[in-house]
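User: structure tokens for this one?
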Amino acid sequence: MKQRLLAAALALTPLVGCATVPRPQLCEATVGARERSYPTPDTWFGLLLHGFDPQHGAAPRPSVDCSGAPVAWEEPAADECGEGGPQPKPLPPKERLDETDLVLETTQANERLVWVITRRFDNGEGLGPVALVERTKLGFIVRGLGSLRGMTENVRLRIEHVGSTDVLVAEGDSCTKEEPQVCRRAARILPLRSGRFFAEAVSNSERACLGPGWFPLSRVQTFEMPSGLRRKFELTSTLVFNSGDITVQEQVSVSDSDPKQPSIPERLYRRAQNERKLKVEENVLVGSAPSLWTRMVELQLQAGAKAMPDAPTVVPAPPKEDPKATGTAKDIP
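Assistant:
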């Protein structure tokens, strides 16, 4: 496979009577007809990871994408934002990448979203380059590129158009180890700007940070109250993508239980719901208000509540390395 790094074609190209902006070409690979029709995991690893060695199934660490940019992610810290992002611990990197580290979604004919997971975390998230890739007569061209950190179970990737901007929506599950196993879903939103996927925090109209571009669709947190009661918060939320904005519909239910009386069922303490808007502006993701979850939890913390540890999540077991492992990647149905 022959690979080339291309400068993003962002200049306006004059035409008779009008002007158009060519689609960015960030990286490309020339491959044979069979590999174009039946790309293997190594095809995608070699396209998106700088320095990938198919013989060893690995790329230099820390990972660098095909444009030369580091594969990195930074969540807003709690002291600079209304709500800080998840801060999980990284797990030891795998010696060899395989098809379990690859997510593919077909967006339209000859176009796919590709996510290569190069690092995993103890909360069920993974990190790696994500790309919008076009299949051509000669091979593959990367039209959009960035880093993505998101949940790695039951992943769904898609492109939504909001206002004048395409956004990548990445949804995935994090599942507990306990039985019966419980899986909770979360979404990331990354605007595509000039060929790059941006991991933008949500800001208000004055550019103060409200929270990360991370949206739990299902979330549970239990707090120990000064009275000794345990107060459980449960969130369910929905993202609705409209032509001009994104609607976030949130509902939080709060229930109390007494650890000294485990036979007594939980008692509903409060239920609240809210709807807020997100706008994808030219260079920022703007929210109309902080999340309902953030506002309700903040009141409990001010009252002296202490968050209890989350249930441990399932993390991949160390793989049995197979130097011949490759195979053909399949799209998620």
